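Researcher: Last one for today. Full complex below.
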Amino acid sequence: MHILLVDDDAQGRSFLAEYLQLLGHLVTPADSVDSALRITEEHSFELVLSDIAMPEKSGIDLIYALQAKALEHRPDIVLYTGHVDLQLAIDALRAGAFDYMTKPIKLDELTSILERVAAHQNIRLSAPDHGHKHRHKSSFQRKEEHLQEVQDMFSRLAGVERIGIFSEKMWDVVHQAEQYHTDRSMPVLIQGETGVGKEIIAKIIHYGTEHSSLPFVDINCTAISPTLFESELFGYESGAFTGGVRQGKKGKLDMAMGGTLFLDEIAEIPVELQAKLLRVIEERQFYRVGGLRKNKTDIRIIAATNLDFEKRIQEGLFRKDLYYRLKVGHITIPPLRERQEDIAGLALLFLRKFSKKRGKQFESIHPQAEKRLVSYHWPGNVRELKNLMEWVSFMHDGTELLEKHFVKQLSPQKPCFSTPEKKRVERKRPVSNADILAALEECGGNKTKASQLLGIALRTLYYRLDKMAS
Ligand SMILES: Nc1ncnc2c1ncn2[C@@H]1O[C@H](COP(=O)(O)OP(=O)(O)OP(=O)(O)O)[C@@H](O)[C@H]1O
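Model: Here's the assembly. Have a good evening.
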């Protein structure tokens, strides 16, 4: 890579330059932000590696100045600083830095960042070209190679199932998650529509880069009744309930000790439990149901929601103090339709995975089919795309995914049922699994239509289907 190295300290600069050259990179040094900006007018770089604190302008000023320039090729920017300051790191990442390091720079950390920048730059260079069929195909093949590289890296880093990241917006999200991983005391709130990948990001925050073997315990706040919620979360002492286990039971807080408690769908936690949860987070201790002894906690809290928190607060359904306590760290995952660069890569990843599982041949996606996938609005986000690819590899076979394989499954932009509200009011009993299957059949497998027919949220339908499948 061609690296622009910006540091006012000549000694530090030459030490770093020497190391980067030893790794085979071409290094251009600069001693200030202004001189770096002048150099970028004549040369193009894959990486700008810069100190944050410099006498006149800072590394963060450099990010903004580079963003304002119409560069032919956009470099990734990595900043470093002598102060361990999480806020500064967050500011740098928010400004658009690719990553952040603290001095003294650890060479293995630097090497791993360089590898990630190289993979990221490769993805940029292989952005799909929709103009010409043959160019399109070769760019797709290049993308497949990089996809492999990136997936391998993520399965290694996060210790979770293979994930695909192809858009800059998602790379930014992943970098923020890795940054939050470094401070366990900071609660993190993840917001985003249903199916965008909030749980995956929660796992990256938890597992981080060193494959944490500490527990990751999740609790779905919508799936448990208020009475059970308390015993699920706090556990109970022996004799607390008639019918409870004689020797008592550990709660999720106990199970998550030393690790992470992931509170999914947090905005829907009953109001009466919010004060108790706030107390646990603030005091880091809790009572079991029926217990007299205080138990200490040492857990990281990550919460997620797809609801509008501000609205819940205004409606009196969520405590403001708990909201602010949870969102000390904060990540928003954009919906899939706002990161279209992810769609083709993820579709191919899922298509191959499910084809392999079912002994089918699917290997690639026809450009017309890709165009259709990319232009669809994906109300169920990545989960909907994943389910669609599973359905296709179940129903069809071939080497290339064609538009006709899936087009009938896509829901129209506008719901086809004009009176979903009326239907919702008419339903008096809870939706059973049989109702769900019947609705899906009636709607030809289209989940958006089926959820409207049933009068339940699309995400509730996905949740119920996941439960039925497991
Ligand atoms: N980047 C990705 N790569 C691979 N799979 C992904 C990615 N993002 C999401 N998925 C898959 O999509 C599905 C939905 O993701 P996840 O459960 O993390 O979403 P969520 O935002 O937590 O949804 P909900 O709000 O409904 O709980 C999962 O099966 C997950 O594995």
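The radius of gyration is 25 Å. Residues 127-143, 414-428 have pLDDT under 50 and may be disordered.
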